[in-house]
Amino acid sequence: MQKTFIWFDLGYTLVYQNRELLYQRFLLEEGINRSLEEIEAAYHLTDKLFMRQYPGALGRGLHTFYPWYIGVLNYTLQVQFDLHTQAARLHELQREEGGQTWRAFPFVRDVFDALKDQGYGIGLISNWDAGCKNVLSANGLIDYFDELIVSAEVELEKPDERIFTLAMERAGIGPEQSVYVGDNYYDDVVGSAKAGMDCYLINRFGRLGVEELQYDRLISSIQELPVLLQQQRGNRIARRTIANLHFEA
Questions:
Q1: How far apart are CA 105 and CA 111, in angstroms?
Q2: Both 131 and 168 in a single domain?
Q3: Residue 115 pLDDT
Q4: Segments in 81-224 forming alpha helices (H)
Q5: Distances 122 to 114, 119, 129, 192 between C-alpha atoms, Å
Q6: What is the domain extent for residue 152?
Q7: CATH number at residue 148
């Protein structure tokens, strides 16, 4: 059956924070010069380790894991600081920038416009608190969504398959019509697969950080989706045409 509905994760799928720049500023204050690319890769590896080893930790309040997280990040970059002092300074830098702000990736609206033009429904399935809709509204995204499923509202969290099933029930579609897109294999791929969905895993750095996975539906960002889905739709049409020709023959 043809795919008609694309579901998205939120954090680091559609929106991001300027955490790498703030960390770079902190290092410069300490007399350490590291490239932004190196810092971005270290954050990526730290995220993937937490997703793999400590499921759910990144979805909790910062006070429950932040010094622990930046300790792993420091280790990846081979630097060492007093973690409580460092965490406090990073919080100060964040306040100077206007607080914890989630920004849409610059390509998101163009991708959504392309998907809408291709006839796809767009939905969100996210482990997020009550501020989810404020993040979407602040970034001009909320009107694109046909369905919004937020863990804090439905009292279910990925990778529980029930949150995916609930989303599809509300949209009035089945898993064979759905595609999910997210950046956490253990929440997004595993959870959506339990509900029968196909899933694309976002990994900005090729296979870096996911080397242990035998999974080939990798994309670097959602920018790839419109062309990828259009190609797949064309391939399905071609296969049906060939099948019909064989049948007629």
A1: 10
A2: yes
A3: 98
A4: 83-96, 108-117, 132-138, 151-154, 161-171, 190-194
A5: 11, 10, 20, 16
A6: 5-14+103-248
A7: 3.40.50.1000
Averaged over successive runs of 10 residues, the pLDDT of the chain (249 residues) comes to 95 96 98 97 97 91 91 97 96 88 96 97 96 96 98 97 98 98 97 98 96 95 96 68 53
pLDDT of residue 149: 98
Q: How many other CB atoms are there within 10 angstroms of residue 17's CB atom?
A: 15
Rounded to 5 degrees, what angle do the CA atoms 96, 97, 102 make?
140
Please tell me the total count of domains within the chain: 2
* Per-residue confidence (pLDDT) for residue 242, from 0 to 100: 46
Write the CB contacts of 240 (distance below 8 Å, at least 6 apart in sequence). Answer: none
CA distances from residue 58 to 11, 12, 183, 209, 235 in whole angstroms, order as listed: 10, 12, 13, 16, 38
Question: How much is the pTM?
Answer: 0.91
Q: Strand 121-126 relative to strand 103-104: parallel, antiparallel, unpaired?
A: unpaired
Return the structure tokens found at 156.
């279910």
Q: What is the dihedral of CA 108, 52, 58, 174, to 10 degrees?
A: 50
